[in-house]
Amino acid sequence: MSFQSKNEIARALREHRIQPTSQRVEIAHVLFERGMEAGADHHMSADEVLERVNADYHRVSKATVYNTLRLFEETGLIRAVVVSSSKVFFDANTEPHHHLYDESTGTLQDIPAEDIDTAQLFHKLPEGVSGNDLDIVVRVRGQATSAG
Amino acid sequence: MSFQSKNEIARALREHRIQPTSQRVEIAHVLFERGMEAGADHHMSADEVLERVNADYHRVSKATVYNTLRLFEETGLIRAVVVSSSKVFFDANTEPHHHLYDESTGTLQDIPAEDIDTAQLFHKLPEGVSGNDLDIVVRVRGQATSAG
DNA sequence: TTCTTTGCAAAAGATTTGCAAATAC
DNA sequence: GTATTTGCAAATCTTTTGCAAAGAA
């Protein structure tokens, strides 16, 4: 998904049965204004969203940002990517894809769905689950200071 | 790793350059007493560890449990598995393997390393990173209430 | 008007930290 | 005897919640 105008955003929200209030539109605008192309940085924490949405003047409160992000996630408009216990990224790209998280740099990047083969995995998935229901986070560990 | 006696545990801690105090040995004992076989439930939250270590009488404080788990993780004795923003599991099995997390049930299970093929992925890893430095969490999404 | 949403500040839950007392080597 | 570790309670950080005011249909 990639929206430019607030109108498009409002329409998209309605399609997800979300009443497009001005706060919600502003938040969605922040989420979707960065391109969704591979390599584009469209991963934001709640705090980043809060900061960006209020960058020039106060538009939305913290509670509303959190609640709205949760609402967007629950309705499938965006996805939450959990990379560490205190780091949740929100991803406006809901096309099937996965994530690569580099612990040492804190960087999150997309992985095309086809770059990871999970064929061997399917027999242990709950029934009815398809590949598109999988969210994979590949974490690159920093050096593990393992004793030698 | 799989230890039975406190002596074995103390030795293992020393090998990781961790001074084996009684609290640390008790915590390690809790972590390692469950078998490491596939299917065995050896994933515990900090709180579970705290509960189990103090099950019959008070042995270790909460702060010490948290600090010790972090210490164990930093020295590579155990691994932390992040499955959601408020759910970190500790895994006493440090052999290369991955994890499958079922959102709807909250269940975490092991995935043998060879069940996921990441060959396509290697060109986007930082240099010097090998397959053993990857921790993969496959999250099975509940139904995403996606709008139709 | 009636239902929904927002905002604030307080609450909650998980983890960490400061510092004095206890323990280890 | 000196350095390390523990425990408590307070602090911190992120996210959620209660409730009155503001906004939408």
From TrEMBL, chains A, B:
Primary localization: cytoplasm
The cross-references to InterPro entries, in alphabetical order and at most eight, read: FUR, WH-like_DNA-bd_sf, WH_DNA-bd_sf
Keywords, comma-separated and alphabetical: Cytoplasm, DNA-binding, Iron, Metal-binding, Repressor, Transcription, Transcription regulation, Zinc
Q: Name one GO molecular function term.
A: transcription cis-regulatory region binding
Please cite one Gene Ontology biological process associated with this protein. regulation of secondary metabolite biosynthetic process
Q: What is this protein called?
A: Ferric uptake regulation protein
Subunit structure, per the record?
Homodimer.
Question: Which residue spans traverse the membrane?
Answer: none
PANTHER family cross-referenced by the UniProt entry: FERRIC UPTAKE REGULATION PROTEIN, ZINC UPTAKE REGULATION PROTEIN
Please name the CDD domains in this protein's record. Fur_like
| Coiled-coil stretches | none
Q: Which organism is it from?
A: Thiohalorhabdus denitrificans
Q: Where in the cell is it found?
A: Cytoplasm
Domain of life, per lineage: Bacteria
Q: Which Pfam families match?
A: FUR (PF01475)
Q: Which family does it belong to?
A: Belongs to the Fur family.
A GO CC annotation recorded here is: cytoplasm
